[in-house]
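Workshop exercise sheet. Pairs work together: one partner reads the sequence aloud, the other fills in the structure field after running the prediction. Swap roles for the next sheet.
Pair: D.N. / O.F.
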Amino acid sequence: MSETIEDEKFVELNYKVVDDKTGDILITVDYPIGYVHGVNDVMSEEVTKHLYGKKVGDIIEVPIDTTLLYGERDESLVFTDHIENVPEEYREIGMTITMENDKGEMKSFIVTRFDDKTLTIDGNNPLCGRAVTFKLEVLTVRDATEEEIEHGGPPDANPDINEILSKAQ
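Structure field:
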């Protein structure tokens, strides 16, 4: 009998994030994300609640309100500067630039466009303001070991979906 996803089960899955408006795949995770269900908040509650009761081979699609995950898009976090003011190593679409504000807080910005005159960076999460659907495929469901429960997933990994999502373009 196939195991179903419930709390304290070790789960591995692959997923894609699809832009609802364009149908474009914004993120593809080709390697399994492993976590202990109900213990690790590697994914938003909005996603994990749809996984309860699913089995290996199941594919689910979960529409996500990115406003709930990342807040409203903040245009004050978008900056454009003259290209000559930007070091050459940052002149690449998708490059992440981490900056510190006057309070010592760190913030990551992503280069979203540049040409021969200007470069634009954006501090909003790339999914902010988009209607997206997470398409998840369940690969593994089994009882988690005590060590996995303690770590919330594989002891040698620290899955963080937000880190992955912050790299979306």
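Discussion prompt: The first helix runs from residue 45 to 51. What would you look at next?
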